[in-house]
Amino acid sequence: MIAFQPLKDYHVLITRGKGQADGLKASIEKNGGTPLLVPLLEFTLPEHIEEVQQRLEALHTYDWIILTSQNGVEYFFKLLGKQPITLPKIAVIGSKTEVALKRFGYEADFMPSEYVAEGFVSEFIPLLESGTRVLLAKGNLARSVIAEAINEAGSIGDEVIIYHTVLPASSEKELVHLIKNHAIDIITFTSSSTVNHFLQVIERHELGTYIDSIIIACIGPIAAKTAVRHGLSVDVCPDVYTTDAMVADIIHFIMTRNTKGGTLQ
């Protein structure tokens, strides 16, 4: 059978961190595209681990812990180590975070229907009583929307930074090379952090004029707002915040707005 490959002839930049790009890479390849893996995120342990571990040792004083990402789950259990501990109720944002949690043998007690902080808050806050103690374990670049909303509602929302997000040094050189050689047709952003790190490279090397014709796709509204705020024109932002939905919307955009690609193999 002849397969229709709508992304044939398209080179798609994947900016998410190593170990998290497999699903997006497979989806691009399945549709005939060429994935370009240049991770603009790298994750490290926080500098003041002792302070973080002190907070985690007090987990028994909390009613809930919130894990907002796959990285949050990984670093949370890495910092916990193998010490036996009874965890409070666990809330997660997103199905991928839930899957990561299950790998460690735990089930989520709450997951919102909308995978952004604002959606989480609207569904989670009604579950809390005055004085309920909640610990939000997050990365250094994550917003404070959730903790602020919990505190405003009369509960106690504390935060602990369990990992840091940095720009990998090796990726900057590779990204500059690809952009200068016009080797990228589509850029995919899966977080505001990937947008910010991308733009840092663009500004540092004065490559603004090189990206005007590149299709830009963001996985959700937060990344899209960050991109627009910095002057990027976002072409694709799916209603469902998953990589599969993003690829499907990229294909729809290409088929309705462009003539390149979409060939038979």
Strand order in the largest sheet: 4-8-7-5-6
* SSE-based structural type: alpha/beta
For the record, the CATH class of the largest domain is Alpha Beta
Question: What is the radius of gyration?
Answer: 20 Å
Strand content: 15-25%
CATH arch. level architecture of the largest domain? 3-Layer(aba) Sandwich
Could you say what the CATH topology of the largest domain is called? Rossmann fold
Helix amount, in percent? 25-40%
- Tell me the number of structural domains: 2
- Give average pLDDT, whole number: 91
Shape: elongated
The number of helical segments is 10
CA-to-CA gap between the ends?
Answer: 9 Å
Main beta sheet: 5 strands, mixed
List low-pLDDT spans.
Answer: 259-265
Q: What distinguishing features does this structure have?
A:
single chain, 265 residues, alpha/beta, Rossmann fold, five-stranded mixed sheet, four-stranded parallel sheet, 10 helices, 39% helix, elongated
